[in-house]
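Limitations
The structure tokens in this dataset are predictions for the assembled complex, not deposited experimental models. Users should treat interface geometry with appropriate caution, especially where small molecules or nucleic acid strands are included. An illustrative entry is reproduced here so readers can see what is and is not provided.
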Amino acid sequence: MTTPLGGGDGRQNPRQTIADELRSAIEQGELPPGTKLPSGRELARRYTVARNTADDAIKLLQAEGLVDVRHGSGAYVRRRRPLVRLGSNRYSQRLREETGLSPFLLEAARQGWQAHVEGGPVQRVQPPPDVAERLGVDDAARSVIRRENWYFADNEPVQVGYTYIPWAIAKGTPLTKPGEPMPTGIYAYLEDHGYTVTRIREEISARMPRHSEAAALRIPPGVPVIEVLHTSINSDDTPFDVTRFMLRADVMGLDYTMSVEE
Amino acid sequence: MTTPLGGGDGRQNPRQTIADELRSAIEQGELPPGTKLPSGRELARRYTVARNTADDAIKLLQAEGLVDVRHGSGAYVRRRRPLVRLGSNRYSQRLREETGLSPFLLEAARQGWQAHVEGGPVQRVQPPPDVAERLGVDDAARSVIRRENWYFADNEPVQVGYTYIPWAIAKGTPLTKPGEPMPTGIYAYLEDHGYTVTRIREEISARMPRHSEAAALRIPPGVPVIEVLHTSINSDDTPFDVTRFMLRADVMGLDYTMSVEE
DNA sequence: TAGTGGTCTAGACCACCAT
DNA sequence: TGGTGGTCTAGACCACTAT
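Predicted assembly:
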């Protein structure tokens, strides 16, 4: 087949061509957020390609996070939702005491979201290697308590956290029991027993969600997760809690303010 | 067509079935990193499906970031490369002076990477709204200087940064000229002129790369970017520089340690 | 009920890789 | 040169949505 063009640049893939044109229409604002894209069949007609090919173009945009596809309805330019930004002050004792809220609820409420937290199972387990290393704990069986928490905004799950506390610390306390003492966070409790969050370390990475994570957090295609490995450090420089958070990156972000040591 | 199974669970999509089995083989370690997956044609034979279908299964894994596909060769389980973690101390004056290195070079070198930075164009421009807001600058034309920097590790681009400095500050200084004064970073220069990084704010999000970013940073499918909106704050609480970084999330991460205010 | 996306088939040609 | 991925076609059936 010959290339019919007379004025433009060289031809490439039909699939890419279609995706490129839709993409730039989106980026230029010609297709504003919420707009419905032409249907696969319609694109196939316009570009004189098989429907497969047109659909593949839309799948590309979906993987790039540009569109949401609704079965039976159409593909729509994704609306950029404002992020809930978790601040670095979220471990502040004072904030907690004044509001009685856990960090997540605090930030979410401040930003106008209907937020709640649900506790999951609490188990005595063997810590993952990276957690064990940061806790300075044996990589041995049952050396830590693992607590699971799910965070919701407007009734959608947006974050999960797995908290690991050395058994030596948690032993015989309510920290080993589910449901407790979540309302104001476990930190209020730990504080009363000599563990104050003096410093924190947060190691941040991003990746595509695992299949199971995508299902559990209802993460749409084209949306990554932010993984935060958080370590709480006591005034005597001992780490006493490590939490691995997974955040839906389309609704959650982080916001740190910190002073720079010389 | 009937479902031939006798012992297992219910059937679903061939495409999903194939992806599920490969995925769990990868997650179980039966297919270790670097292993070559069966070819599309081979999978098609094994599962008695069309080649399209088998290929689609592999594309799913690719979009999840689990495999790297090499044209003409095969699909391989992705090796997890260790991250270069940029620390919160990277704006430390002392570190800079002792080593003479810019933050990125410092961290990368410390972690055994062959690193270098390339400066891009320097222009006087109108700042993006979010940058203008953080700089406390007019959203007007030509109110800031924009500097562009590309960061390489082992000769691969892994990070871009766009730095915005108010024209009022940069006017008549080497900050308006390209190539300068990069070797030790612009911060050394600013410091000598009354702008010391006393506090920083970093707003973090993650998303799939834009098409152009993916091309420029050579980001493979299934890999997101981390976007950091960095603000440098002077001792008098004035912001004097905003930089937007884009990091390839498969090789770059962040590592903050900070004290918690009461 | 008409239109839309989801998926699959069977066959084809091209580009790239490795031997 | 044979195997592999990349892409495309033309047609089909199903599941879901909207009216």
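Some entries come with short summary sentences. For this one: The longest strand of chain A covers residues 115-125.
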